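note to self — DONT lose this again. spent like an hour looking for the file last time. sequence + predicted structure for the chain T wanted, 102 res
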Amino acid sequence: MITSKQRAYLRSLASNEDTILMVGKNGISNQVVKQADDALFARELIKGKVLETCELGVKDVAIELAEKTNGELVQVIGYKFVIYRKNKENQKIILPRGKKNT
């Protein structure tokens, strides 16, 4: 579980990232989950977008995708979302320390 301070830090990093994942009319297919999983392994932080053709809501897509990839939902804003997952083998993002939320 990430703290609010860490979440704010990840949001600031995500603002400079390109949107690399698109969820469309097929929703959260196995292909989308694999693409997100591979991207999280390589980058640790991904930004996705839910297209208007998708029948699911943005928050629903983001939550389900975070669960299926064992990631942390960082942010949902408009049609976009950000997911983070620490890569234990090749860590790229060092999170700031912060008090645990209770």
